[in-house]
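input
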Amino acid sequence: MEKTTYTIDAAGRTLGRVASEAAQALLGKKSAHFVKNQVLPIEVIITNAKKLSISERRAAGKIYTRYTGYPGGLREVSMKDLMAKKGVAEVVKKTVDGMIPRNKLRKERMKRLIVKD
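output
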């Protein structure tokens, strides 16, 4: 089976809708060769990520948390701060990553996601 490339234009669209479309494509649900337990040769390219429609209230209110493993190690960063530090591409990757099942195929599927500003 040959490699398939999906291109998603994010200009003027909301983050969740773009991310869910990308996640479905990465999982292979848009393909006729869909198999649950395999990573299909599908690449997803998201263009115009800077033109995503993200409201100020959403950017300030959404908080990403992670735990370092040490006592008192709960780290929080808002979407606004994450976009300022690492760019919109990182926010899109985190959103799509949250929509991919947590199993051994997750890392391989996320490698096939390309976000272009």
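quick obs: The domain at 4-54+87-115 is CATH 3.90.1180.10 (Ribosomal Protein L13p; Chain: A;).
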